[in-house]
Request: fold
Amino acid sequence: MRIPRVVVCLVSALAQHGLTTQIPHAIDIALPSHANVPKVDGVPFRVFWYPDRSFRAGVDVVAIDEVSARTYSVEKTIADCFKYRNKIGLNIAENVLRSRTGRS
Reply:
């Protein structure tokens, strides 16, 4: 609510969709390229900049603690986990994909 332009992404979006056992230490947020980093006291977050077209694609509005929040869809989140694998870890992306396809 304090930063209406952001979209919850990557590990935080996986957690929102129930697709990971990882407990995020910070909220992963997406911003359009070249956007200013928001200032919010007491809320740890990691910022990921997305090109405008990618930033707008696959956005869903969900209720988190009875508040509307923008988050990426399951499919977009999985794709983004591979795109940002060097920043979040390839193991996270692989584990999600395995769980979705039923492979171990």
In short: The mean pLDDT is 90. The chain is about 35% helix and 25% strand. Residues 7-101 form one domain. The chain has one domain: 7-101.
